[in-house]
Amino acid sequence: MVVGDVCVDIIARTGGPVSEGSDTDAEIRTAGGGAGGNVAAWLASLGVPVTLVARVGDDAAGRSQAAELAGYGVRCAFTADPDAATGTIVVLVGADGERTMLADRGANLRLSAADLPASLPAGGHLHLSGYTLLHDGPRAAGLAALRRASAAGLTTSIDPASVAPLAATGPAAFLAWTSGVDLLLPNLPEARLLSNRTDPVDAARTLASHYRAVAVTLGPDGALWAAGDTVVHLPAGPGDTFSAGPLDTTGAGDAFSAGLLAAWLAGADGPAAVRRGLTLAATAVARLGARP
């Protein structure tokens, strides 16, 4: 089960700097987005049975997202909100593939504990999008999901979502809410913020004292797997490198999470699961948009 956000992404990829106050040519398209929706779509594309719990608007965008995700094989447990629009993200992608996001989270901010299943079946896994904890509105739902998963004996994972809202919320609060989760899946800036450590290995090892295991993505340098006092660096392999650079890094972390989770839940050890995540992230950055 994935609990998190669903959005429509409006992606604008420019070939160079934006001309402020004038026109800039761009390749523009609309695509499905939101970290929760992206992870669920990638998991389903790998054959993992997955239910996505989210709140969308009672609008054409929300219905379109439900249909698109169902097409991947996701079971959509959506609440249609009559008073808020489906979330929309404007994604500005530079020539180097790096993205900047302007977010109107819409109905995602109104996710409530009442939107969650009353009980969770034992033996499954809960993946929580960190965005649910980084805003006042959906936070109670995110915390309730973690409590119910623990009570049902589910394994759990969480991604910290995005370094700017994470910093605004406060790393101490995030750690207090999530310590004890089985898997933390941050990128390097998020890991540095949460651990108060600059060195990637130190950051990963510090965070592993709060979680059963941690996988820190390092961009083109691969990823780290940390469990207990052990830290393993998985460099990007031949299939994970991009001779021409990434086309679009939007959703790369979501694809990494899905690849890692699919392998880990199937019994792979941590480093092997990280390798699967890196391979799927490489697939994601070679295309425009955040989904398969």
Helix content: 25-40%
DSSP helix count? 9
Q: Within the largest sheet, what's the order of strands?
A: 5-4-1-8-9-10-11-12-13
The largest sheet, given as strand count, sense and whether it forms a barrel, is:
9 strands, mixed
The beta-strand count equals: 13
* Category from helices, strands and their pairing: alpha/beta
Shape type: globular
Summarize the structure.
By secondary structure, the chain is α/β, with parallel strands linked by helices. 35% of the residues lie in helices and 25% in strands. It has one domain (2-285): UDP-N-acetylmuramoyl-L-alanine:D-glutamate ligase (3-Layer(aba) Sandwich).
Task: Explain how this protein is built.
The chain has 292 residues and is of the alpha/beta class. It has a single domain (2-285), classed as Ribokinase (UDP-N-acetylmuramoyl-L-alanine:D-glutamate ligase), CATH 3.40.1190. It is built from nine helices and 13 strands. The strands form two sheets. It has a nine-stranded mixed β-sheet, sandwiched between helices. Helix 1 packs across helix 8. It is globular and about 55 Å long. The relative contact order is 0.15. The mean pLDDT is 93.
Topology summary:
Elements: E1 2-3, E2 7-14, E3 26-33, H1 35-45, E4 51-57, H2 60-72, E5 75-81, E6 87-93, E7 99-104, E8 125-129, H3 136-152, E9 155-159, H4 163-169, H5 171-178, E10 183-184, H6 188-195, H7 200-207, E11 213-217, E12 223-227, E13 230-234, H8 252-265, H9 270-285
Parallel strand pairs: 1-4, 1-8, 2-6, 4-5, 8-9, 9-10, 10-11
Antiparallel strand pairs: 2-3, 6-7, 11-12, 12-13
Helix pairs in contact: 1-8, 6-7, 8-9
